[in-house]
Amino acid sequence: MIGLSTQNAIPIMTWVAAKLVSGAERLAIAAAQTTASAAMKIQDKASGQKKLKMRAWLSPGSESVAAFGSAAEAVLKPTFYRPDRRSWGYASASRMKLHEYQAKELLARFGVPVPAGEVATNAEEALRIARSLGGKTVVKAQVLMGGRGKAGGVRLFDNAEEAAHFAGELIGKRLVSPQNPTGMVVEKVLVVTQVDIAAEFYVAVLLDRAKQCSTLMLSAAGGMEIEEVAATNPSAIVRVPIDPAWGVADFQLRDAVRRAKIPTRAQSPLVALMKRLVKAAAEVDADLVEVNPCALTPDGSIVAADAKVVIDDNALFRHPEYSSTADASAEDPIEAQATRQGIAYVRLGGDIGVIGNGAGLVMCSLDEVSAAGGRPANFLDVGGGAQAERVKECVGLVMLDPNVKGLLINIFGGITRCDEVARGLLQAFDELNVRIPVVARIEGTAAEEGRKLLEGSRLVAAETMQEAARKIVELAYA
Ligand code: GDP
Ligand code: MN
């Protein structure tokens, strides 16, 4: 059976629905499509990219929305059911996150006040920058995760020498935060002028998928405890829906700062800043623009002391200038490798490798692995008509993930010939020295020949995909 399982139908349809918001041109195409693979092809057309929109709902703990740590996203009602977590999750996380320094550059172009600063990749550069800024600086790890402050990735200094010393220690170090337990290695630091902070506010503009419009979120309780506020007292975060056609009116923003109990003297500059954030978010097709802390200085001005921006990668074709700012270090290394090889692979964070042909069949396989009590390590579609060499490459790619304890192969031969697949698998086992259990369900064109080829190999055969999933879970976790 090739197609959509009921568990997957909901997120895929939600995804299609969510995409309707971001462009009328996609509406007509999207509405005409119903299957998972069709949905993915739409995306290819729109963006010229091959990224899949499945990571968030299939991948517990992998680099996802949560890892970037946006409090506002935690407040919004998630929009669909995630079978893997038995909970509700977000529709899309295959998005382009910008580093803080990139986000600040972007916002500055829209007139948002940001502290002066520069990026350094070593202590000497940091020293030069810190000196040029007068010494009183903040050194900030440029990693795409939330909670850097708590993780020890942000520190304030009174002189350039200490700032440079810290920068040298930070570069090359792995930062771990509650939002990102696996952590990320620091390759760059941002050295900025220290802002004198009298109060910290929280402002974000993000896509509310449930309401199908962008929403502005505002809180007087900004800073590092905002996650706590979002979790325990979400009503302390004021929301303003942004009409897709009309935008947001001044009176709505003035009402919002009053409702959020922003101190009177900060209200006007904050309203001005929020207008700029809303404009920036719309013009760069951002899913998220977040400023936390949005700092009030003792002299009453407002400065973006931190910034997160996520650009909807479906809209990247409209913003070629940002595709070059996408930082390669942000990508999962295996996904980056897959992109270079032109293989549709998404890392999901589990430990059962999955290879199949056709996106729908692969997703069914993921569901079956989950249903059998396993945790899928990846999505991988070998594509139609795969030759032995391609199959071998795919096995190699899945094996790059050190967590993989077992491999499930699910092939339904149509234009793909099962004997070709079998030859590729045999080559892969031979050359890559695969030692983990492998279960294969091979059906369709030339299945008989394929199964014959695999006889006597270390591969375990299964009749159905359910049986294959049960077997691999049993063998891998034995
Ligand atoms: P995050 O923890 O990853 O969100 O990193 P932030 O850039 O928000 O920094 C963490 C915390 O450091 C902020 O909440 C501020 O309290 C503090 N901080 C950052 N920059 C400055 C600054 O220029 N001046 C002062 N006084 N505090 C800062
Ligand atoms: Mn912050």
Could you describe the 3D structure shown?
The chain has 478 residues and is of the alpha+beta class. Among the domains are: 116-194, 2-Layer Sandwich (Dna Ligase, domain 1), CATH 3.30.1490.20; 332-476, 3-Layer(aba) Sandwich (Rossmann fold). The protein contains 19 helices and 21 strands. Strands 3, 10, 11, 12, 13, 14 and 15 form a 7-stranded antiparallel sheet that branches. Strands 4-9-5-6 form a 4-stranded antiparallel sheet, covered by helices on one side. The longest helix is centred in the middle third of the chain and has 20 residues, at 264-283. The two termini are 29 Å apart. The model is unreliable at 1-67 and 77-94 (pLDDT under 50). The site of manganese (II) ion (MN) has 2 residues, from loops.
Cα distance spanning the termini: 29 Å
CATH superfamily of one domain: Succinyl-CoA synthetase domains
CATH architecture term of one domain:
3-Layer(aba) Sandwich
Bound molecules: guanosine-5'-diphosphate, manganese (II) ion
What fold name stands as the CATH topology of one domain?
Rossmann fold
The residue fraction in helices comes out at 25-40%
Which structural class is indicated by helix and strand composition? alpha+beta
Shape field = elongated
Count of helix runs: 19
The count of strands amounts to 21
Stretches where pLDDT falls below 50 for ≥5 residues?
1-67, 77-94
